[in-house]
Structures are given as structure tokens and as C-alpha cells.
Amino acid sequence: MKKFVSKIIGPLLGATLAIGIGVSIDSINSNKAAEVNGAVSSYSDRTQSTYYTSAFSHKVNSSQYGTTLLNTLHELMYDSHKSYNTYAELWTYTKETDYDIDNPDNIILLYSRQSVDGNENSNVWNREHVWCQSHAFYTTGTGAGSDLHHLRPASTNYNSTRNNTPYGVVASHSESNRMGDTDCYYTSGYFEPADYIKGDVARILMYMYTHYSSSVSGTSTYSGTLNITDIVTTSSGTAQAAWDLLMDWNELDPVDYQEMIRNNRCAYLLGNYNPYIDHPEFARMIWDDTSSQQAGLFFQTSYKTVNVGSTYTNTASKYGNVSSSGDITYTSDNPSVATVNSSGVVTGVSNGVARIKARCTINGVSKISYHFVIVGSGYTPKHTLNASGVVYTPTSKTTAVASETLGSETVTYNNTYGTSQLTKNNSLTLTISNFPKTISSFKLYMKSNGSAGSGTVSVTVGGSSYYSKTGTFAQIYGSYSTSFVPVDITNASASKKTGTIVISISATVNSLFFQKAVIDYSERTVTKATSISVTPSSISLTPGEDNFLTTSFTPSNTTLQTVTWSSSNSSVATVNRFGLVRAIAKGSATITATAGDGNGATGTTTINVVDEVTPDDPPAGDPTVTSVTVSPSTLNLDLYNNLTGNLSATVNGTNSPAQTVNWSTGNSGVATVNSSGVVTAVGVGLTTITAQSTVDNSKTGQATINVTDSTPVASSISATVSKTYYVGDVITSSDITVTDNLDNSIDGFTFANNNYQFTYSDASSGGSLTNKTFTNSISYNNMTCSLTVQVQRKEYDSSTAVSDEITRELTGVGTSYTSWNNKTSNSDAVYAGHCMKYTTNNSDAIQLRSTMTSSTYYSGVVSTSSGGTLESIVISWNSGTLDGRILSIYGKNSAYSTPNDLWSNDSATQGTLLGSIKKGTNTSLTITGSYTYIGIRSASGAMYIDSITINYAGGNNDAENLANFVMYEDATNQCLTKLDDAIEIFEGQTSSERAKFMTNNGYVISTARERLNAWATHEGKTITYKDGDYIVSSRAISPFNDIIKNDSSITIVIIISLIGITAIGGYFFLRHKKS
């Protein structure tokens, strides 16, 4: 659906609050559409604050009450009702008006308050006429019979149960009279909606009578006969008794957030509002037969939006038959969201919704009116009774696991074929013993084998049949599916069952697959009340004044939170079944609330009826605040080991003032405080936390917060690396992990030898690990440390490439699944596996499966000893393998034990998934990365393989490997033992690798080249390069060149030197003698 705001709010030129729910509510459901046929898009004069008093020719004014007010509302609704939807359009419209704020793709059902998929119309929900057609003049044509304000979505089952039973009071609220999992009750002659929707029903019936009854004077197009006694049944049978009951329901269940949203959405689509939702006080002003009741208070705007910290003024006026009255006072029912002062100025405190109540004594009767204030982003509605669910998933042929345990239930599972698949004549049973919840819905996730698959699905609950169906998968589910789909097996007539659940599935022709069972259950558990608290615990009233009593239950999760009310002295004060007390005459009476669950719990309050109070006196029972106490008064916090602390506030005063406060901090740089009084240290210092009463903003309490910091200071650091370096590698700071002596990881340190390249001086001859220490090379915050790493020379890799071929003959298995091992081929590798021989069409192939092939083993092939570095794997598929079957290839650098390792949830045991080979798509996989052990398993059912070829890589015949050969050792006289081999390796390389060795200036290759040149020069060898000869020129021998003279050479040099010295000496001796 298209976005509601983007399509509508522009053309309405800023009529934000009146259109639907305005910015606050559309922000909650930005993806809801409003582009429906018949929406009033050209009508812009719909600001709700003027709707009743100035927007139309018929206006509500302060002097109207009784029939006059009724007729005015009738004309106003006729004037503003610009679009009449059809009955068919309700399927679309309902998704706009009754959507669930928590889940906008769902809608809220009327009687059960369940949140269900809005697209499941006719299957899960249908269109409920709250005023039944059989008790009215209309059908489903345009007008009253399809009015969107009137029709509500309801469960198909519950709608059928209610049928056309009139509304009334059911004498016995027993389980046998309960409608399903709701709090609605019915008998043969009465249907009583749950307390949380009594007001919704009453306001819809008042709307229908006002708008469409021909008994109401005024203009009309779709009016007809509507008798209130046809739809509401009372013991006296009079119309006044029916209106009295609806007025009681209207006050018992006040308008909530969801109902307000719905009214505004309907008004956007149709043009007119339900006035009894905007102004519930209109009900008594019209239908109460006591003249003193035909007056009340009127908020011109029934809802306002405000940001946190902002204010607005919305005052109430006295309307109707007012003969005497007192001052109007204001209170908030949720001061943690919004507060109001004595002048009607409302302040937004936090995100949420509050009711601002105006109260005044008019004609000697206490009158109350209210409006909604939506602060910030508002809140989500209450009473949505969503179900919860448990998922049961098989993990093997004999086990299944549950996503949660609800009580003492146990789960058993048995599949005669595999974990989830059933082939012909196989079956499975999943048993949940003693399922403790009431089932609300039930789905099995299954799939078929292509366009085949058939069998029987049956379920018993508590020993009785719950569901059974036999046939093809298309008959069981509705169509074939090769993906898992939810098969709904919910049995509406048995939906309240509980007990042991047995699920049985059998396949009769071809494969069926079972993935999981999802059992949704009602959260309803029967918890009975142990005590009841009545609020207020005592109250003073004047004759004619009334007041609502409220109850709270212990435990707080009491299932049936209803009571019956009684008065000890009805000549002093009476009480109706909804807790509305009315003072009759001076005196005292005790009002008792008795729990409706039959457990005997009671609660009481004392009603003192006194003489009329003076106009200056505050209304009886209003709370006053004398002080606020914060505990503890001093709170010590520490940034290191005591970061948070809790404060509590006690609001002291008379008449039980609300214990809600607003918390604030004197210095957020020292400590902060949240709405629950939790203080969090921020910085060292002192500050004050203040608790301000929401009843009286002038009353506060304080606590002193002292924040210290005992965080230990590091005195030393240490450094490590997690790798071994080879000659030629470069070490950088990113390789190094530095921690302090408090085990804190250090970033931002300095490494004095960053980008150092390791040389052959750093590594011992022969490839042994050599410690290399960088002394005091790491520094951080005036601390230094040394770093020691290990360096070694790379050894020449002389290995050669080799291939192993695994065939059925190599495995030695027969026509049943068998484990085998110690099978070797061309390399040094040893393989093990679990498979069988595939013999169809006289083939001799290896057969693998993707499930357990016995109670102990999984199918697959692994290597238990290495044949070298893996290079690639090639599969020769047998023609019996279906296209699309997938073979998964795993690798690691430690030995596998059995194919079961490939099915482990531990990646170290299973190895790394290197890739897959898919029948009909590819036959080979090139392996990237260095792995020495291989694992092979089916990822999609049975498959048949003629041969598996595993290729191992040989040593790299490249310039680097030649350099490793030359430089691995520093022994003397290597030119005599290794030169010829080195030249042979060199001349066996490709021309590009030879050119790289002769020209690359990298440290490893250039150093090896220098040594090789020295060897060649000493031995007088010639290195052939490309098409010509490369003649090694003489050059200085580096410290890494060999000592190329042996002991004999040294002896000859000494002898020649002695002869030379003797000859020179003899020459000078003879010259001297001659002279």
C-alpha cells in the first residue's frame, strides 16, 4: 500500500490533527495507505476543534441537551457524511481503520482483541454488524448496513457464536458461558461483551441510533426503524433501561487510543465523526432521565498533540441544563506523560498518551470530561491478546527439540526413514506429552517431492482426534510445494483443547518431508485473586455526587479481574456493577468489591456522605502533597566499580497522592538520572538529584550524589605477535598486540621499528626458529617495552604434484552402507568413508546420502592422513544422479577421524566449506587457500559418483623457491654440493621466472642471486639465460657467500709465500755480501 502521509496530507493544507490521527499517529504507521475509493479528499474544513461548534450549519452549543442535542448531532452527522462506502469496500477500508499499531499489516478484531493478518479476510475474520441486521431495517446496501463506523472486523468463529443475540448482562460468568478465549459471555438470550470493549459497543450503538433512526428528527437519506430494545435486552425491557446500561458501559470502558485512531480514520474516509467517541459526555446529556444529569463538561478538542517539554491550553466548558455549578478542576491520569495545572495548561513530560480530566460539580452532581494528550511519539494500545508459540524441530531420526519448555511436558520423536524425509511406506510420530497450554492455532511445516508425494496427516490432542486428512500433498495443503510451507491443521471446534499431543505422518506413494511443528497457545492461565484493593480507600461525597471506584488484584496476574459491587447501606450510597458510586443522603456506607472468580477475595472502601461543600472547598478526595522524601539522601558512586545507584521517592500528603515524580539532575556532567530514579555516574564531583511531585510541582525532594574515580592506572606495557616471520617479511604495528598490566588492550602505541624487513642475519641456518628482539621499541604514555618475535628461513619445497582417484572398488563397500578406512592411492594420503554401492543399470558407483545412514554414521568421504597441499577435486557423476544435487567440499589442516566430522556444528571439527559441485552445472572445484585434508559430503539427498579425483599440488618451481634452496643453509663449500642442483633448478624454470631471479631487487631473491653468482664464479660455471649465455662476472663476496678455499688451498698459498720470502731474502743477502 502507498504511504498515507505522502498521498494525503499535502492536499489537506495543514488540517493535521483532524485528518485521521494527524502527524503523531501517521508517524507510527507511515506505510498505511489512505488511497481508497470514496475518501473525502476535496473536503478540507474538517479541523476537529471546529467540527462540533462552527464548521457546519448545525452546531453544538452550550444550551443544548436531551432531544435538542440529539437532533443537532443527527443533522451534523448528515451534513458531514460526504462519502458512503459499499459493503464490498469494507475489506479494504477495514485495513485502514482497524490496523494494529504494533504490527500495521495486521488488524485488531473486535471481541477478542486479537491481532491477525489483515489479508486473511473471510477465513480468519469477517465484517461484524455491531447492530445486527436482523434487529434493524437495513441489509448490506449503501448506508447504515455498510457504514464503516458501524462495522468492525471480528473472528469468523466468534461472529458465528454471537450470531444475532442482543446485548445484555449475563448473570453467570462461568467457563461454560465464556466465548472462546475472550472475556465475553453469552446465553440463549444475552450477549455481554468483555469489559474492555463495552464502551466501544455502546458508542457504536449510540452512533447508529443518532445517525439512522427514523425516530430522530432531521434530514436523512438512509434512515429507518431502529429500536434500542431490539438490540439491548434488560430485565425491565424498557428503552430507558437499555440506555442506562449503554451509558454505564460508556463510562466503564472509556475511549482508548486505538478507538480514537479508528474514529479519525473513519472521519477521513467518510467525512463524519462518531460524536460519542470524541465526547462521551453527550450520552448522559441526551439519554439520562434525571434532569440534573442532562448537563456536563465539554472539551472543544477531544485530543491534542504536544512535544515533550511543550505546553498548550485546552479548557472545558459547562454545557447543557446547568442550574448550579462549582469551579472546574483539572487532573492527569498519567502525570509521568503529561501534567496539567489549575488553569488547564498541559505540559508534555515524556512520550506516551494521557487523559486530562476536567471535574466540576454541576446541579449537585460531580461531572467528569476528558481529552487525550499525545506526547511525542505516543504509545501503543492495550488489550491486544496475541498468542505465543512453541516450535518443535527434529534433529535426528529419534530426537526433536522444543524452542521453549512451558511446564513438565516431554518430547519424543521417531522417523522410520530419516530426520525429515518420508519415502513410501515410512512414517513418523512426534509426541508432546502433557502440553500445558490451550491451543489457539496449529501448523505443520511440510513439503512434497515435486508434483508427487501423498500420505496421511493426523493429530490427536488429549486422546481425542483433532485433525486427520489423507491424500496427495496438494489435497492436504492446497497445492504442491518443493519448499516448506505451513499446513494449517487448526481445529476451531477443538481449539480449547489441551493435553498430550500426538502428530503422525505417513507417506504412501512418494516422499513427504516434515520440517517442524508450530503450536500457538493462549497465554490464559487460571490464576485466582487472593486479595483486592479498592481505590480510593475512603472518600467523602455530597448527596447526588458520584465517583468511580477502581480495583487492583493480588496477584497482579489474576486471570479474571472482575468484581461484583455491593453497598452496606444503599440509603446512604449506591454502587452499580461497574463501580460507579452515587451519594444519596448524609451518612456512612461500606462498598465491597468481591472477586468474580469465586475465590472469595474482597476489598472495601468507606463512603462518607457529607453536607454540600462550599465553592471554595476543593473537590472531596482530591490529593494534596506536603513533601517529597528521597532515599537515600546521600549516594556515593565511583566511575570504576560503582557506576550506578538507585533512588526512591516518597510523596507525602493527604488523600493518597500519586507516588509519581519527575527526576532531574543538577549537573549532568557529574551524574544523570532516568525516569525510574536510576543514577549513573558521569564525572568526578558533587551534584544534587531532585524528585518533583507530578501532583504538585512545587513539592520536591533531593539527594546528594558524590562521584569519585578509583580507576587503577597502568604502570607497564607488554607486546606480542601471533605469527612467525620468514626472511623477507615485513613487520608493522598492525601485527602487534599491546596490553598494559591491567589487561587493557592498547591502541595508539608507537613501534620504533615499523616496516622492518627481516634479513638472513635474523634467522639461523637450516630453518630453525630464531628469536629476534626489538629492544624498547614499543612506547605508549611514557611506558616502553621490548618485542620478541620468531624468524626462520623457508625450506625448499621439492614435492611433486600427484593425484588420487577414489572409486567404489577402492572403498570395497557393497550394497549396504558400510564404513571403510586405511584406503590409499598414489599419494601418501589415507582416506575413510561411509557409503554403499549403487548398482542400478549395472553401474558400480559410490552412493552418498545427506542424512544419517544408520543410528551411528553419516555418509561421506574424508582424508585421515595428508597427501600434500590440495589443488583441486574432479567428480565423475553417475547418470543416475538427479540434476541439481549438490556435493559439498570441506578442507582443513588437521586430520579428519570419520565422515561424522563433516556434520558437526563445530567449525574446527567440520573444517572450512571450500565450495560445492552441482550435478548438471559443474564437475570440478579449484581449491583456493592452503589445506592438506579434504572432506566430501552430500548436501541435497542421494547422489551417485563413478569416481572422485583429488589433485595435490607440487612444490612451486619459481624464483622464490630457488632462492629458498640457495639460502636455506650457511654451511661451507655449498658451491661444491649445491651449485649444479641450483643451476638445474634455475634452467628448469620458465623464462619469466628465470628473468625474475636474475633481475628482481627484492631482498630474498637478490641475496640468493648474489650467493649463486659467487658459487658460479668460484666454480667457473656458466648459467644459460634465454637464448644466449649469461657469463657470471667477478664481484666481491658478501658476508653470506661461502668460504670457497679448502684446507689444501691454504697450504699451497703458505708454501708459495715462504718460497717468495726466501728468494727475496737471498737476493738482498747476496747484494750486501758483494758490496
Low-confidence stretches: 1-46, 379-387, 613-620, 1026-1048
Class per helix and strand makeup: alpha+beta
Shape, per Cα inertia axes: elongated
Report strand %.
25-35%
Question: Over all CA atoms, what is the radius of gyration?
Answer: 45 Å
Number of helices, where a helix is a run of at least 4 consecutive DSSP H or I residues: 21
Question: What level of helicity do the residues show?
Answer: 10-25%
* Biggest sheet details: 11 strands, antiparallel
According to DSSP, the number of beta strands is 66
**Amino-to-carboxy terminus distance:** 129 Å
> Mean of the pLDDT scores?
82
Q: Overview of this structure, please?
A:
- The chain is of the alpha+beta class.
- Helices cover 18% and strands 34% of the residues.
- It has 21 helices and 66 strands.
- The strands form 19 sheets. Strands 54, 55, 56, 57, 58, 59, 60, 61, 62, 63 and 64 form an 11-stranded antiparallel β-sheet that branches. Strands 16, 17, 19, 21, 24 and 26 form a 6-stranded antiparallel β-sheet that branches.
- A hairpin with a 6-residue loop joins strand 34 and strand 35.
- Helix 16 packs across helix 19 and helix 16 packs across helix 20.
- 37% of the residues are buried.
- The N terminus is likely disordered.
